[in-house]
Write a structure and sequence with these properties.
The chain has 129 residues and is α+β, with helices and mostly antiparallel strands. The chain has one domain. It has 3 helices and 2 strands. The protein has a two-stranded antiparallel sheet. The longest helix is centred in the first third of the chain and has 41 residues.
Length: 129
C-alpha cells in the first residue's frame, strides 16, 4: 500500500506534466498560426495596421480565450521587398497543475510568435498606411 501511494504520486506528476506540456505546445502552435494569419491578412494592400490588429484579436477570441496581446503591427510598404508587414502575438499560458507551473518558474509562461510577409503591389492609390 505504501509503495503504491509513492508510485502513484510520481505517476500522476508525470501524467499531468505531459498533459500540460501538450497543452502548451498546442497553444504555441495556435499563437504561431494567429501571427501567420495576421501577416497573411496584412499582405492585402487595402488593409491598414488597425485592420490587421482587429483581425488577429477577433481570431484570438474564437481560437483561444481572447487573452492574446497583439501590439500594433509594423505595416510594410506596398511592393517593397525590404519592408514587410510584421505581426507579433503574445499569449499568457497558465499550467493546470500548480506543481508543474512551479517547475516552469511559477506565474505562467508568455508564449510569443512573430511572422512577417511582404505586402503585394497595389494598383495606383490602393495601398493603406
Amino acid at each position: 500500500m505504501v509503495e503504491y501511494a509513492i508510485a502513484l504520486n510520481v505517476f500522476l506528476l508525470l501524467t499531468l506534466g505531459v498533459i500540460d506540456a501538450g497543452r502548451a505546445i498546442w497553444t504555441y502552435n495556435t499563437v504561431a498560426f494567429l501571427a501567420r494569419d495576421g501577416a497573411r491578412y496584412g499582405t492585402i494592400p487595402s488593409h491598414s495596421s488597425t485592420d490587421i490588429q482587429n483581425h488577429v484579436t477577433s481570431r484570438c477570441g474564437s481560437l483561444l480565450d481572447g487573452a492574446c496581446v497583439v501590439p500594433p503591427p509594423t505595416r510594410g510598404a506596398c511592393g517593397n521587398p525590404s519592408s514587410p508587414v510584421i505581426v507579433t502575438v503574445k499569449y499568457p499560458f497558465q499550467a493546470v497543475t500548480p506543481l508543474v507551473d512551479n517547475l516552469w518558474g511559477g506565474g505562467g509562461v508568455t508564449l510569443q510568435a512573430t511572422s512577417q510577409m511582404y505586402v503585394e503591389q497595389a494598383p495606383a492609390g490602393g495601398c493603406a498606411s
